[in-house]
Amino acid sequence: MDGPDLSGLRPQVALTSAHPPTTITDSSSHPPAKKKSRRGGDPSSQKRRCVSTYVIPPIILLVRCFTACRRRKSKCDGALPSCAACASVYGTECVYDPNSDHRRKGVYREKIDSMKARNSTLQILIEAILNADEEDVPEVVKRIRTCDSLDAVAESILKQEEFGSVGIEDEYPIENDYTTDMPVEGERDLARKMGELRLENGSTRFIGGTSHLIHWDIHGAPNPEYESRNTIGAADINPITSWSDVTKDPEVVRHLLDMYFNWHYPYFTTLSRTLFYRDFLRGKSNILPNKIAYCSPLLVNAMLALGCHFTDAPCAFGTNGDSWTKGDHFFAEAKRLIVDNDEYEKPRLTTVQALALMSVREAGCGREAKGWVYSGMSFRMAQDLGLNLDIGGIKSDNENLDEQEIDARRVTFWGCFLFDKCWSNYLGRLPQLPKSSYSVPKYDVFPDEDAEPWCPYTDSGFDESAKQPSRTRTIGLQLSKLCEISSDLLLFFYHPNHIGRSSGKSVELKKLSELHRRLEDWRKELPKELEPKEGQLPNVILMQ
Question: Where are the domains positioned within the chain?
């Protein structure tokens, strides 16, 4: 074979052999003359070389001749134009295949592909900054600085360009100019079936588009069993005591409710106080079946059980003198109502609120397992009612939902959201209501309601000297914002997929920096009246 002289590129690794290469003799009596080695020395003194591609420059690869040596599985010295085994021993044609060994080529190919991908990602990000509008550039830079993966940001930008999205924060862009050339007779009716709110048993439930129930043209028919439970024949019964069978003393009921609304409600705002008292003062007999109500026997007994923990009055003890039994008699009544009335089968706004209150009461008594179950029932029922959804674009049996009902639904969801984050931090578990599970806006702050006075309440009455505006909704709104930051922290650092693994110090430090910045921004945006100071509201101090 003709070829360039590459003798200077022979491998540097050699293995000694105990025997010289075997020679072939012919049938004549005279011994054949030994062939001279191409290296100019005695072949018997030459050491057989083992070809290794790891010591050869990457430009020129010397590999084993695949036609002969590889087939014989014999050692090859890599000599050119023919190896010693082929030329001197076997007399076969020696052919090299420079493409047969990919050990080095594979490594370099992977490096080249990696560099190409990195350069492509950087080019996409740079072009995104150059082509973005002036007001969008800071948002692009922010996404790059706070991301976990530059490749993910580049892929997101490519998707936005592919779908024609102009919003830099849209994770799932949608074409606004989408049209169809296939008109269908029932298309409008079908579009309405993508999800709707349905009035059943005095509650507005959400039925999703994938459920077969959405195709049933049924509405909330009156429930005789439910109606009989909520109707009292004697009209002269005191409405205040009609909600609980534990006590018929209206002063006890008022005292315990005042304790609840004074010391527990400001921390966990889970209901509309105005709507609750409106229905509470009407009495149970005046709550019409199949109508949305904001008070129920279950909810009242749960409130009374919590109110017992803030008083030393004899009515608060399940067993006289035993402080461990405070509220047990009212709580037992609440549990009886759940079982006897099958409350878990008929989702209602008041049931969601009551289960949330029962969960936190059990946690305060050291029964975390029971409390966790009650909280889960509350959160699942809240989603059954669609409290987690923005009902603005969802069809409803009642197309004109009352503004008070919409507000009460929002207050209840964000109250459950607060309960969820408290449970997650208390037990070190993931949130049951993550950011991806809701779209409901936050509730509004009503100045007249927040201006209602608050002052400490004890068994001796109200302490008027510490009277100040309650600001209940303002504080609840700030707590919900704080819980959103806490939720992101729990999901990033305490997700089961991250246990025992590390995302890298740079990624974790970047996430910590982002969370710290969000907390600082939340702190700076707090109204001045919520600053910590002497005589401040207890729930504000807790929030701080």
Answer: 1-101, 103-163, 203-443
